[in-house]
Write a structure and sequence with these properties.
The protein is α/β, with parallel strands linked by helices. Helices cover about 40% and strands about 15% of the residues. The structure holds nicotinamide-adenine-dinucleotide. Nicotinamide-adenine-dinucleotide (NAD) binds next to helix 7 and helix 8.
Amino acid sequence: MAQVQLQEFDFEQLLKKQRDFFSTGQTRKIEFRLESLKKLEKTLRVHEIEIFAALNQDLGRCDFETYLAEVAYLYAEITHTKDSLADWMAPRPQNTPLALAVSSSYVLPVPLGQVLIISPWNYPLQLALAPLISAIAAGNTAVIKPSEFTPKTADILAKIIAEVFPYEFISVVKGGIAETTALLDLKWNHIFFTGSTQVGKVIAGAAAKKLIPVTLELGGKSPCIVHKDAHVKISAKRVAWGKFFNCGQTCISPDYLLVHEDVKARFIEELIKAINGFYGDNPIKSPDYGRIVSEKHTLRLINLVSEQKILFGGESDLAQKYIAPTLLESPKLDAQVMREEIFGPILPIYTYSQTEEIAPFVAQFPGPLSLYLFTKNELLQRDIIESISFGGGCINNTMYHFGSLNMPFGGIGPSGMGAYHGVTGFNQLSHLKSILKSSFRPDLPLRYPPYGKKIKLLKKLLPWLT
Ligand code: NAD
């Protein structure tokens, strides 16, 4: 069945249609879920070239980065989900305490119902469809509200979804704040939001009024720490890759650098070599260096750099939405560039001399989404990973942790709540129903009133039975 053109703001009707479709029970069947995932993958492959073109128009992004970060990631998530779905959906037997004898128990993942997915502009296809894959796998219906800042990608996304699914199963609603606000007025069974911490609070507030559970995938200032024993050249290349991929518009991009003072000079030298090696002397001409999403966002970044000491880069071109890869010498901590998530190709650089300085420095920007640590020192690795609060991260790398479907991906505190990818996404968008199944015999009289002095026996028995 094709998608229909809905009346503007006729979202109540859309939700009702999805609820009715869900009630038919079709989405509960494994065959339906697998078939839906297969069709989605097939249609993505058919439209790959259009996807590349859309991302190129929206973000000036090269095909390699779009393939790696959007399309290939989605193929991997679909394949992993298809291969694992039977196991994930199966009842999960649990140990049953003797006190509950004679019984068995299990946990059964069941669909939640109608999921609303609200996505941002920086990876506008992947961040709309990865939650959708989890939603489909878990047997839900879904409405996707993509970002208004990447309209070409929103168009191709809507086209793909319309080709694959009837709107009462999966639908795309294009629009901005007004449409999102109208959608937030409805009674969803779950809201999956990816975006800024600021808007995350709006989403959580709206959801709280109706007690709708939320997953919030937000941002923050992710630190990148380089210790004096790190391999300077390789670390610099990996930091530059993580920082300037998609022009720094990545939620898990290193936000600022904290480098040991002994290696600072060498590290900056290698960082500059890496930038020149990646994008040449004039990155505006590089086919591999992207653009900022809009003039408004470009202007914000230009303002962040102004009045800062520039170590490298700093050039910009508002009309072309271009900001050069830029390194800043330790901006004041109350400067705007350190008061908000940078989300662009600007890297402030600070130094430390004692490892004890690292945790208090990072704690000034609490609960980052990611943390990156470059060191061979295993004690320091353990200390930093265990003592600092952050969503997830890498040792001796940047951003790669996102690519593992075997690990939960999510933030902590201001960088989000809940997680997804692989089985974590399936669990996140399922209800894990606990069932205890008893036989009729034996039917021990101990539990029933009149209790009399049975409490004495209960006290003796329970410690042995639990
Ligand atoms: P954003 O919060 O401005 O917008 C996200 C979505 O919310 C969009 O669809 C937008 O239309 C909608 N929206 C915006 N304002 C709204 C409002 N007042 N009420 C209701 N809906 C509203 O985020 P963005 O600028 O698109 O994306 C950048 C942010 O997203 C960064 O902070 C980044 O760190 C974060 N992000 C996080 C992840 C993650 O996985 N944790 C991934 C990508 C981006």
